[in-house]
Amino acid sequence: MRLFSAAILFGLSFGTAIAQDPGLTDNLAGLHGRSDFHPGGSGTGGRSAYDGLPVYHNSEALVCSDCHSMHASAQHDYAGGTGSDPFATGGYPWTTQPTSKLLKAPNSLDLCLACHDGHVGIPDVLGADVNGLTQRSGGHFEPPDTNPHTGHNLGYIPESMKGAWGYCSRCHFGGTFGTAQVECIDCHNKHGNHRARNLQWASNPGGEPPLGLFMDPAVGAAFGDMARYERANVAYGTLDSVSLREPSNICIDCHHTFSGGYYIDRNADGFHERHPAYDSERASPNTVSQGATKGSTDPGHWEGGTGSGFEVDRLRFVVQGADTFAAATAVSALNNGVFCLSCHYAHGSDQSFSLIWPEPEPGSGRRGCDQCHNKAGY
Ligand code: HEC
Ligand code: HEC
Ligand code: HEC
Ligand code: HEC
Ligand code: HEC
Ligand code: HEC
Ligand code: HEC
């Protein structure tokens, strides 16, 4: 239980600091080129507390009518016309079944998917991508209740399996890891939290520290450009403290036995029992260079970027000490660490276990792995 009590205490003590984060009152840029169902010209962008880039569904960019309907009915859209609100698929006048908490869909999963699947100009997180990105940074899900082997199982989570302790029962107390499910608002704050992508702690929403997921400022400065969600335009950093943690800090809530020295190197002899995954909260960072002496990693090979393993794109890495996009893109074995998102997409992928890279043979072979290890050495 050390993680959870620590996390909760840590969240409480950090509450004040979050409220005082700089950046919230910075100059706010307008919403350029927003999706066409939104009313024109009425908003400025809610910002990430850390790097000041805009985050949608957050602060000034939290548009209540995106997700709530006051009377389960509307005769026209906010522009006075017949618009293209993804919920009003049959056009206007539009009515819907009244639902708990005035949601525009019967539950919180279908709510998000009504917009986030198959609409140009809205990041598409399910199946094929209608926005034509080369590779979505979060990868992609399969439809709810299909429980794919290629990533997170989306499902309709009962109230009893939500909340601070409720979510434990998805994998324990009757639930099983293999069949457990997740929904969007486990990981994303529905009303925005000034964190990149509104990422949150499932165990303690609102307690999470700022998270080092950075967009290239060239595409991240305004809404409307789907390049904000392109893998190549996202990079990761951490300051190893509550000031800024690696975004995989949110994974620990559920995958609480996969990182931290206690789980990955139980006798602390430097030889691992589980693969290292950067975990600053539990004082378990890593760098590609750390295995050089004993020959477990090959720093020069990682920096060189060619040969065994590099048949696939360079894997993503977290940069120790980086708090800007530029710093988080610099390749150096001395401060590049391996973390969950080096090997997995957060949502899902085309590969088994939501892995990043494809293999010619079933299993995880030298591709990817050998970028850091260079063991196949051909
Ligand atoms: C009415 C449509 C609509 C609904 C419903 C909706 N979204 Fe969004 N969402 C958008 C649009 C549009 C954007 C992209 C804004 C941009 O970058 O241009 C977005 C962006 C996001 C982002 C990325 C934010 C950023 O700026 O990095 C996240 C995360 C997200 N949505 C999560 C959710 C979740 C979770 C739900 C359900 C609780 C949800 N959305 C429901 C329209 C919607
Ligand atoms: C991106 C979608 C989204 C947007 C935008 C949104 N909400 Fe919500 N809201 C939700 C969801 C989902 C729930 C219910 C979550 C659940 O059942 O756990 C909710 C619940 C609520 C609740 C019930 C209490 C609570 O927090 O659960 C209130 C009140 C509320 N919203 C008000 C607002 C207001 C006011 C705005 C605009 C300032 C807004 N919401 C914008 C998705 C949204
Ligand atoms: C709210 C709890 C929760 C959080 C937070 C969470 N996961 Fe999971 N994850 C699960 C559950 C439950 C499963 C097992 C069932 C499934 O495959 O979805 C799972 C499965 C997985 C799998 C295996 C998928 C498969 O098809 O075999 C990977 C990989 C994974 N998670 C990575 C991550 C990463 C990376 C993060 C952080 C970005 C993360 N998870 C955050 C609950 C969570
Ligand atoms: C995504 C699935 C998942 C979720 C959610 C989850 N656990 Fe676990 N838990 C595991 C796995 C996997 C193990 C290691 C194997 C085992 O013991 O079943 C584990 C082990 C444990 C252990 C044994 C001690 C240890 O650290 O190895 C405890 C206690 C525990 N979990 C408590 C919790 C509590 C409390 C929650 C909610 C706050 C929770 N778990 C949420 C998957 C999960
Ligand atoms: C297990 C946690 C988890 C769940 C569940 C989850 N997300 Fe995400 N999401 C993330 C993380 C982490 C990222 C950042 C990925 C990155 O850039 O590496 C992300 C990124 C995003 C983005 C930005 C686009 C992209 O591809 O990076 C959107 C939009 C989004 N999520 C919406 C959703 C919606 C809608 C749902 C539900 C259908 C959902 N997410 C469920 C963790 C999750
Ligand atoms: C160096 C690459 C790498 C890193 C880093 C990594 N994983 Fe994995 N993960 C894998 C591979 C490969 C598998 C497939 C199983 C195997 O080959 O052992 C896997 C499997 C999984 C599974 C499925 C386990 C099961 O019982 O079915 C989950 C969940 C998961 N990873 C989550 C995570 C999380 C969370 C992190 C960060 C704390 C993480 N992984 C870091 C490579 C990695
Ligand atoms: C982005 C870099 C990176 C990638 C990709 C990567 N690893 Fe590692 N791996 C590391 C680092 C760093 C260590 C810790 C080295 C050390 O302390 O000796 C490590 C440790 C290991 C160890 C334990 C070595 C020891 O002496 O404790 C094994 C085995 C291993 N990795 C296998 C794999 C496999 C298999 C894959 C692909 C599924 C993989 N790694 C992908 C960076 C990476």
| pLDDT averaged over residues | 87
Note the total helix count: 10
Low-confidence spans: 1-44
How much of the sequence lies in strands comes to under 5%
Widest sheet: strand ordering: 3-4-5-6
In whole angstroms, the N-to-C terminal distance is 45 Å
| Silhouette | globular
Helix content: 10-25%
Give the helix/strand class.
mainly alpha
Ions and ligands: heme C
β-strand number: 6
Spatial extent as radius of gyration: 21 Å
What series of H and E elements makes up the topology? HHEEHHEHEHHEHEHH
Biggest sheet, open or closed, and with what strands and sense?
4 strands, mixed
Identify the notable features of this structure and list them briefly.
about 15% helix; single chain; 10 helices; binds heme C; mainly alpha; about 5% strand; about 375 residues
Describe the protein.
- By secondary structure, the chain is mostly helical.
- The chain has helices at 2-19, 64-67, 108-116, 184-187, 217-220, 261-264, 299-304, 325-328, 340-343, 366-373, and strands at residues 73-74, 94-95, 213-215, 234-238, 318-320, 336-337.
- A four-stranded mixed beta sheet has the order 3-4-5-6. It has a two-stranded antiparallel sheet with strand order 1-2.
- The longest helix is centred in the first third of the chain and has 18 residues, at 2-19.
- 39% of the residues are buried.
- The structure holds heme C (7 copies).
- One heme C (HEC) binds at residues 149-153, 167, 170-171, 177, 180, 182, 186-187, 202, 248, 250-251, 253-255, 340, 344, 346, 353-354.
